[in-house]
Amino acid sequence: MSQLRLSPSRISDFNNCPQLYKYRTIDLLPEPPSIDAERGTLIHTVLEDLFEVPASDRTVSNAAQMLPEKWQAQIEAKPAIKELVLDSGAWFKRAEELLGNYFTLENPTLFEPTYRELHLEMDLSPELYLHGYVDRLDVAPTGEVRIVDYKTGKSPKPGWEDKAFFQLRVYALLYWKNHGVIPKLLQLIYMGDTRLIKSTPTEKDLIKTEQILFDVAADILRAIERNEFRPRPTKLCDWCFFKAICPAHVG
Fold first, then answer.
1. What is the distance between the alpha carbons of residues 62 and 60, in angstroms, rounded to a whole number?
2. Minimal CA–CA distance to 32: which of 79, 93, 76?
């Protein structure tokens, strides 16, 4: 087969449910848009574009004023998402609340990001291509690197933070492999409940992450070879669009 392409989201799909991975990545079955995902895209777009203006203009009110224009552009790119919003007033109010929460966690007037929506990629092996998009990556004048990810949902419950950082460890691994520098700080900004959590990765952490990636890739290649993607039923099934055709719930 051709080289296996993996990203943190596809790895998450397979770990949560191999059958879900098959539907999305191999069968390429279409899914309807999600209102939460589209709201997240909107907030990410505003925060990305916020750093295009002078630092003094990066205020919460200016960010909120960007919302209607950015949402209209999003609708023009994907007309079907317009039907998701039944109450535009409530929609924009919630988006403004999330932006307000961001400004309580970080002051965007105090720094200049080095990269936004940075695409990191590399061949980890002849069989495995790994890539991902980083919301923001900041390089200090002294060389320290900070990787930042925006989340519009709520932060993980106690004990689940380590799992939440897996995505950023993958990005840190890619950056280290490509630039020879281990990021100093990984930062998750949760606007849903106004919480910021941080992690300092070590070389040992990133080597462990790389081994996890190789193990997951081996499991996926084995599943492809055998055409065996077993469903993994959990409470998340109730929110899965493919539940109606999933072998775990049909027949």
1. 6
2. 79
10-residue averages of pLDDT along the chain (251 residues): 89 96 96 93 97 97 97 95 93 96 97 96 95 97 96 92 93 97 98 97 97 97 95 93 92 66
Q: Dihedral through CA 108, CA 111, CA 115, CA 120, nearest 10?
A: -90
Instruction: For 173-201, give the secondary structure using H, E and C.
Output: HHHHHHHCCCCCEEEEEECCCCEEEEECC
| pLDDT attached to residue 251 | 66
Q: What pTM was computed for the model?
A: 0.93
Burial track 170-206 (b if 16+ CB lie within 10 A, e otherwise): bbbbbbbeeeeebbbbbbbbbbeebeeeebebeeebb
Residue 145: left if φ>0, alpha if ψ -120 to 50, beta else—which one?
Answer: beta
CA angle 189, 162, 207 (to 5 degrees): 110
First to last CA, the chain: 32
pLDDT tens track for 97-108: 999 999 999 999
Q: What type of residue sits at position 100?
A: G
Q: What is the dihedral sign for C-alpha 29, 32, 35, 40?
A: positive
What's the pLDDT tens digit per position in 106-120? Answer: 999 999 999 999 999
